[in-house]
Amino acid sequence: MRLALPPGSLGIDTKGGEIDSKMALLDSYNRQGVVNCVILGDSMVDYGINPKVLQSEILKDTGQDYRCFNFGLRWNTNQTSATLAEVLSRRYKLSLILVGTDPMAFFSTNPMLRDIDMLPWIRYQLGDYSMEGFLVEHLMFYRYLLILPKNHLSIFNSPMKQYEERFQDGFESYDSIMAIPKKSREPYEEYVMDQKDLEGLQKIASLTQGKTRVIAFHIPFHPNDYPLFVVGGEKKYEEAFLNPVKEVINQAGLDYIESYPDIPSRIPKNGWLDHIHMNRDGANFFSQWLGGQVGEMLSR
Fold first, then answer.
1. Cβ neighbour number for residue 282 with a 10 Å cutoff
2. CA torsion, points 18, 23, 26, 27, in degrees to nearest 10?
3. Residue 113 in this model has a pLDDT that exceeds 80
4. For a Cys-Cys bond, which of 48, 123, 141, 152 suits 128, CB 3.0-4.6 Å?
């Protein structure tokens, strides 16, 4: 019966209910066997990391069996990733948290999901108990009532069986190959990072304790797009995004894997869905490389 129904709502409107579906799918996977590794980030992570390939490479280097789940979300910000990292680390027995960094997840003009930490279910997970948080957590009927005002007409309100078949391990994969134009778009006149997202990175770093390891990584986009991201080209990209992120990472003592500038050009030409998202082939290539890097880091 459960597989014939949509996942129900956590009370979070993400213009499609993806977080509802991913949380339901993660709960389902965890009932089947402990999920001890999650991958957080925005749509670039959502489309770009294949957990099965990643965990297979980690196993080769460490001999440790990680079961990973891709919790990347469209329109996600690093501020939200920090909140989700805390919720998921409390809810599951996580040994490894991987956090993808890219400029869109730190962008001040990206308002989606920023209010997630004020929602009753999230607050309930963090110890701020309320009746609504209790009802969402414990009564599926209440979650279905919360779907009605949204009137979602998307795959994220499809029956759970369809979602489990389509998005295995939370990985939203596509086989399409898009021709990459020489100039994909006009550069941003200015790139301004949101301080809340930098603070989120520090918050994520603080979750490294006991048996939980946190590692951040730079998720790539198409190599043609780096010179076009912001006025000033790649030098400005480094000054406006990379350097501030690395400064926070170094101050926080957070483990970090850098993919720029070498890896974007090594991803196969047919491995791109569009100028910022990898397709399945690109995701498999990058996940294999990333898994090797993570495995090497965990083995030290």
1. 26
2. -150
3. no
4. 123
How far is CA 3 from each of CA 30, 31, 104, 146, 184, rounded to the nearest angstrom?
16, 14, 34, 18, 40
Please provide the distance, in angstroms rounded to a whole number, between the alpha carbons at the two ends of the chain.
Answer: 46
User: Residue 212: helix, strand or coil by DSSP?
Assistant: strand
How far apart (Å, rounded) are the C-alpha atoms in residues 201 and 51?
22
What CATH fold (topology level) applies to the domain 2-299?
Rossmann fold (3.40.50)
Q: What are the residue boundaries of the structural domains of the chain, listed by start?
A: 2-299
> Is residue 272 over pLDDT 80?
yes
The encoded tokens of residue 249 equal: 């990472």
Nearest to 173 by CA among 14, 15, 29, 48: 48
Q: Per-residue pLDDT for 166 more than 80?
A: no
Cis peptide leading into 187, omega within 30 of 0? no
pLDDT exceeds 50 at position 154: no
Dig out the tokens for 123 from the structure. Answer: 């607050």
pTM, whole model, 2 decimals?
Answer: 0.92
**Residue among 236, 202, 255 nearest 96 (CA):** 255
Write the pLDDT tens digit of every residue in 12-54.
654 556 888 889 889 988 988 889 999 999 999 999 999 999 9
Spatial separation of the C-alpha atoms in residues 236 and 137, rounded to whole Å:
45
> What are the structure tokens assigned to 75, written together?
């329109």
Q: Which residue has the tokens 């469209």?
A: 74
Residues 6+ apart with CB under 8 A from 105: 41, 42, 76, 77, 78, 81, 197
Residues 20 and 8 sit within 8 Å (Cβ to Cβ): yes
The SS3 of residue 292 is: helix
DSSP percent split of the chain into helix, strand, coil, nearest 5: 50, 10, 40
Question: In Å, how far are 38, 71, 172, 173 from 66, measured between CA atoms?
Answer: 10, 15, 20, 21
